[in-house]
Amino acid sequence: MGSVDSEGTNQVHDFAPPITPSGLFWTVLIPDDAVTVNLPAGTAELHVQSMDLLDSYAIPNNLAGGPTEPATVGFDLYWSDPTAVESLVNAEQGFAGTFLDVTSALQWSAQTVEFSFVSDPPQTSTSLFDLLGFEANGVYVASAGEIATPIP
User: Fold this and answer.
1) Would you put residue 42 in left (φ > 0), alpha (ψ -120 to 50) or beta?
2) Beta pairing partners, 15
3) In what helix (H) or strand (E) does residue 72 lie, and over which residues does it extend?
4) What's the pTM value of the predicted model, to 2 decimals?
5) How far is CA 20 from CA 16, 35, 65, 115, in A?
6) Distance CA 94, CA 111 (A)
7) By the 8 A CB rule, do 123 and 73 touch?
8) Angle at 127 between CA 124 and CA 129, to 5 degrees
9) Residues 118-128: tens digit of each pLDDT
10) Widest Cα–Cα separation across the chain
11) Burial of 2 per CB tally in 10 Å (0-12, 13-18, 19+)
């Protein structure tokens, strides 16, 4: 396997939800019970099994509404081991956030009628840059100077 070139001409699979009539793309609703987060501990997990998507073969084909075939994907994503915490407050822009530098690990699979793929186990992942955090904006920003924290 290699990387996909900037034009997508060597891309063979592109697993993505359909583009909605409003133009929203690459977005899908995940059940609440698929996600667990413990921000104070700096950990989170996302587990999805047998999600129905489409294989549109390449990003340009996906964006142009080209041919697709049914596909199923699954993934287990883990965030953990925080090493640093940064809190940002920008009252002028109405934004506040608390972010933790963490490590991530992923296992991913996909299947169509004629193709299947399973990644290596999550323990073999290499984590380059990952943040886990809480962000608030607009009316949800705490009083000026306060650090953003999730409200239970």
Assistant:
1) left
2) 55
3) strand 69-90
4) 0.79
5) 12, 24, 11, 26
6) 43
7) no
8) 170
9) 999 999 999 99
10) 56
11) exposed
